[in-house]
# Entry
Amino acid sequence: MLSTKQQEYLNNCNHRWNLKIGATGSGKTWIDYNYVIPERALCMKGEGTGIILGHTRATAWRNVIEPLQNRYGMRLVGKLKSDSSIMMFGQKFYVLGADKDTSVAKIQGMTVEYAYGDEITTWSEKVFQMLKSRLRCKHSHFDGTANPASPQHFLKEFIDSGADVYCQKSTLYDNPYLPPEVVDALEKEYAGTVYFKRYILGEWALAEGLIYPTYTEALSDCVFYDENDDYSESVVSIDYGTQNAFSAGLWGEYNGVWYRYDEYYYSGRTEGVPKTDEEYAEDLDKFTEEAREKLAPGRKLRVIIDPSAASFKTLLQKRGWYKVTPANNDVADGIRETSSALKTGRIKISPACKAWQKEAAGYSWDDKSDKDVPIKENDHAMDETRYFVRTMHINKKARRRDEDFSRPSRGW
# Structure
């Protein structure tokens, strides 16, 4: 039985552009792969092609194509071919990523009869603008979903432009199939941040003020219960700088929580004396000596480092006792995941980490930008913290749990 929201969408999605904008976990794509996409495909007249667009091709596949295959089987939803095409319900579709400006070339010249879009607010604006010109059949339609972003986002401006758009808003509470404990967990993860307005209430909200407003709640030393206790694993995260600050955080995992229990911080600009790569490497050796001594024989200490620090990465690898991993440097997702990890206690910060606290106290959104970006100053410990969270997949289990609940076997 369809919910009121589901029936509302099916009754009104007869416009050129049909959008569901709302909270994470509200099940926005469920009705699409169970009803909307199959029906649109069966109504195609062969005057153009179909496309499925996502943040990347991989996310489009995971969020849209796999659920379609699970629901209808491989006979109706086939395999992806080398040219990114797939046969679905007797029609040819292309599965494409839309996150980069260069992706414009993938749809340029196409005549698109039907398009479906996933995570639209993560797309390149140039791809979106090109798509508008590709929907050039008389009966062309677009269906899509997104989490809301800044009120200045190009998608919000398009919705408000007077174009032929039906836009349905959804909140977390519009999914009656989410267990109460999951709703409670998601509320706590995003409480006190811009993400609560966007991912819980489904509102277009400006990112302003402190990025981690409740950072002091995460300050905690790890307490060992006896002399045999210790961190089960240690990792170092680094934001490399010469004139800018060089920041390194030493993390230890204990009972499922990662503690940033020590830090190294040096600013060549502030001190007036920049250091060489070799000097930084020697400092890092001293900083990590105790952690390395506790490793099992033959095991290397993992170092997560700013991917742009190529020369320093090579130097550390030559030393022989570090396992160097280039950091995942996705700023928006990194900040969101770090915010969640701090709020839920999946990471803790030792009060001894004074540089981290000083930066967190001033780490703010740039309210002069039309995108969600931090003010780029005094942010080096903040950068290596999100490198750590994003690269180590600190929130991975939580994300899988949320995805499982947002894809119920039936219902919104």
